[in-house]
Amino acid sequence: MLSRLPPDVQQRLDELLEHLPAGVVVHDKDGRILSANRLASRLLDRSVAALIGTESDPSHWSFVQDDGSPMPESDYPVNQVLRTGKPLSHYVVGLRREGRGIIRWMICNAYPERDPHGTLERVVVCFTDCTALKRAQRKAQKSEERLELVLRGSTDASWDWNLRTGEVYYSERWWDVLGYAPGAMPTEPETAMRLIHPDDEPRVRAFVRQLLAEPRDSYSIEFRMRHQDGHYLPVLSRGYVSRDPDGRPLRMSGTNTDLTERKENEQRIYELAYFDPLTGLSNRRYLMEQLGASLARARRLDEYAALLFIDLDNFKLLNDTLGHDVGDELLKQVAARLRTTLRASDHLSRLGGDEFVVVLEDLGLCPDEAAAETKGVATKILHALGQPFELGPHTASTSPSIGITLFDGAPTDIDTLLKQADLAMYRAKAEGRNTACFFEASMQFAADRQAALESSLRTGLAEQEFVLYCQPQFGRDGLLNGAEALLRWDRGALGMVPPGEFIGLAEASGLIAPLGRHVLEQSCRLLARWRHNPALKGLKLAVNVSVHQMRDPTFPDTVAEVLAHTGAPPHCLTLEITESVFAENLPELIERMYRLRRLGVQFALDDFGTGYSSLAYLRRFPLTALKIDRSFVHDAHTDRSAAAIVEAIVTLARKLDLDIVAEGVELDAQRRFLNTCGCDALQGYLLGQPMPAAQFERRYGHPAGVA
Question: Residue 573's pLDDT is what?
Fold first, then answer.
């Protein structure tokens, strides 16, 4: 039989064990039970007398594993520690009583006790009832938190302070948490106090005095304790106070939990919630809180502050061209440059993508001075971000567009400030980018009008307010050989809305797809009617197609469906595309165009020479015609350079067997020059203005319908 602890130590240990919120069973090196507290007796459903001196008795009760399957006796907690010599933590076991099934679930922690020579002497097993937690863990998050608390508490460092004698007992785990060997420091009440962080010590002493003076038994308090290597651990101390019948404190017992991992997890959660992992800057959520505080401060002090909305110019193009890794590196370098540009008191956040926000405070009481100081900060940002960036093997340049709004104690809200700065930023982009603009009330008026127009756009589309116009195209012989379909928005009493205004709005609002289908359907209905008119039969009708439509994988199917539904001849339909569609997804685009060409649909490249011009497009894509942009046509009859460009385009088209259409013909001299060059078709106000489709049919729908 193993020697027992000294009687007084054993007595203190037994008293502590009886009050611990866990069942404790001590085994010898052969697995026999040496001692057990009352809670262990209740949890294991056997009397203490029946437990002492026995080994596990499978005929009376047995353990099951976390999933409910029988647990081999070799995997019982005590047997695992005896076999491996290593502590066992957070082990969930179920207790099965013969004839009764599983009667409870328990969290089990077991650890070996060794003599000074390292020989295993005892195995201490702690059980904590978690039946309720086990049953509820899938129903509520709170159950998981309580289970985690039990798991932590069952392996904590215990201690006991006899208030009558002043003696203190510290468990080996208590010393281990702090990095000391057992007995390396005096076992007196002041030992723990001397290890508490100097900033926490007065608070802890006051807490203990108040605890002992009040009729309160349990307690919980957090503080920091010095580790043997010098750093401080966050500690949660929990326990109870034993009192005599008169309420006088007799002893104080408890456990200490090392909160380092929990605090680190809390910090990581905080950083994930409030900071951008790529740049390390605060994120949108943090910005909202900071803006709220800045607004309150501006109101309280009646002074000015500023919000700067920063957007990188052409970032998407760089990101798509050089790759997202390079784009991420650029964003990190932008964040670093912004940090060096701003004061320590300025607040910098990444709103998302390539958007950054700066909040400037303490700008004084004068609006002119506040604006001047803010403009100075914006100028520094423009200069800092205007320098080239070294991105691995690449050197890239970008520039910011900055929108600024000032605010003071006047009533406003966070969303309004962000909208104002955003509007000012878009004004900066419209003015050429790489500049800063202050918010003005006129911007809000324009934005409100834009929003109202978008709402009307949806209504107008539903109520058939968009009508089809046609502009005729004539061959060199002066005969009508086609037309271009143009969309007009007729708002009745409110007048006509220019295409330049509503087309961009339709693209931005996502309405370009239904609008484009509307134009396609109306155009194909025209072609279907024309095939029964001898004067219009065989005419080609050109329909403009947006980038968004060409990027849609279902677009070829849509065209085929409309052609079949209307009965329009496919070879008379010409889809006009601009060079901007070639900026990305070339293989997919080529495949869609060839699917449409197999239907018989023609393709014309509009505004040739003004976009992402590449002669490779003419070779790779199934084009049937080129349209010479009006900017070249305008001066071709007087400017030698413009004339040379037109002649070169015509020659190139002839070599590639492509038709040539010149648009913007407004003068007879332009017509004569283009006819001399060999253009196949001419289009412009000289020859015919855009007109409603019905008027076009009346004018040209007979044999005399020529220019």
Answer: 96
Contact 619, 647 (CB under 8 A): no
What pLDDT is stored for residue 557 in this prediction? 95
Q: Would you state the CATH architecture of domain 278-439?
A: 2-Layer Sandwich (3.30)
Q: Are 516 and 499 in contact (CB under 8 A)?
A: no
Amino acid in position 427: R
Place of tokens 């956040």: 349
- Return the structure tokens found at 360: 């400037």
d(CA 371, CA 363): 8
Quote the CA–CA distance of 40 and 557 in Å, as a whole number: 74
Which pLDDT score is estimated for 140? 40
Alpha helices in 65-140 (DSSP H): 77-84, 131-136
Q: Tell me the angle at which helices 315-322 and 324-341 cross, rounded to the nearest 10 degrees.
A: 140
Q: Of all helices (H) and strands (E), which one includes residue 128?
A: strand 120-129
Q: Which of 471, 343, 317, 452 is nearest to 396 (CA)?
A: 317
Cα–Cα distance measured from residue 334 to residue 396, given in angstroms and rounded to the nearest whole number? 12
According to DSSP, the β-strands at 305-312 and 389-391 are unpaired
The rounded distance, in Å, linking the Cα atoms of 210 and 242 is: 15
Question: Can you tell me the distance from the alpha carbon of 348 to that of 340, in angstroms, rounded to the nearest whole number?
Answer: 11
Delimit the domains of the chain by residue range: 7-153, 157-265, 278-439, 452-700
Q: What is the pLDDT of residues 421-441, one digit of tens each?
A: 998 998 888 888 899 989 887
Helix (H, G, I), strand (E, B) or coil at 405: strand
Contacts of 500 by beta carbon, 8 Å cutoff, 6+ apart: none
Which pLDDT does position 10 carry in this prediction?
A: 66
> Helix, strand, coil shares of the chain as percentages rounded to 5?
45, 25, 30
d(CA 273, CA 285): 8
Helix (H, G, I), strand (E, B) or coil at 631: helix
Measured in whole angstroms, how far is the alpha carbon of residue 377 from the centre of its chain?
28
CA dihedral for 679, 683, 688, 691, sign (positive or negative): positive
pLDDT at 13: 67
CATH of 7-153 among 3.40.50.1110, 3.50.40.10, 3.40.50.300, 3.30.450.20: 3.30.450.20
Are 40 and 18 a contacting pair, CB within 8 Å? no
CA distances from 427 to 173, 421, 422, 433 (A): 66, 10, 9, 9
Q: In this structure, are residues 298 and 291 in contact, taking their beta carbons and an 8 Å threshold?
A: no
Fold held by 157-265: Beta-Lactamase (3.30.450)
CA torsion 211-214-217-219 (nearest 10°) is -30
* Dihedral sign (CA 511, 512, 515, 521): negative
Query: Mean pLDDT for each consecutive 10-residue tract of the chain (707 residues)?
Result: 57 72 86 86 82 59 82 89 89 80 83 88 88 64 38 61 84 85 76 88 91 84 91 90 84 87 81 85 89 89 91 85 87 93 91 92 89 92 92 88 88 86 88 87 64 72 84 92 91 74 73 87 95 93 90 92 95 90 78 94 85 66 90 87 89 91 92 91 93 93 59
The count of other CB atoms within 10 Å of the CB of residue 373 is: 17
8 Å CB contact between 279 and 350: yes
**Burial (Cβ within 10 Å: 0-12, 13-18, ≥19) of residue 238:** middle
Assign domain 452-700 one CATH number from 3.40.50.2300, 3.40.50.11270, 3.40.190.10, 3.20.20.450: 3.20.20.450
Per-residue model confidence (pLDDT) at position 706: 45
Residue with tokens 């809200």: 413
